[in-house]
Amino acid sequence: GQYQPTFNLGELHTQIFGTGMGYLMTLFFGGAMVGFGTQLAGGCTSGHGLSGCSRLVPASLIATAAFFGTAVVVSLILHFTSGAGA
pLDDT for 32-68, tens place per residue? Predict the structure, then answer.
């Protein structure tokens, strides 16, 4: 075979986030939420996970647990609402 890069993220991605202006608004909203979360948590996921947790900073341990917990819950929700878990 031949390697051909593609920017298509799949049918499920298109169903959830749409295309065109709706997709751009989703990207903007997602970026704004990441910025808000970074400000609220006092740092980014990598900063808390790598630097804060290695120094056993309680706020970083809690923030990292919240980041990972939220990621697990959201991925399970997407998995079961997409019909893949049925």
Answer: 988 887 888 777 777 778 888 888 989 888 988 998 9
- Tokens standing for residue 30: 């997602």
* Contact in structure between 67 and 45 (CB atoms under 8 Å): yes
Distance CA 81, CA 78 (A): 5
Separation between Cα atoms, residue 48 and residue 40, nearest integer Å: 13
Distance CA 86, CA 10 (A): 19
**pLDDT in the model for residue 25:** 87
Query: 19 is written with which tokens?
Result: 């295309």
C-alpha span between 62 and 47 (Å, rounded): 13
CB 73 within 8 A of CB 3: no
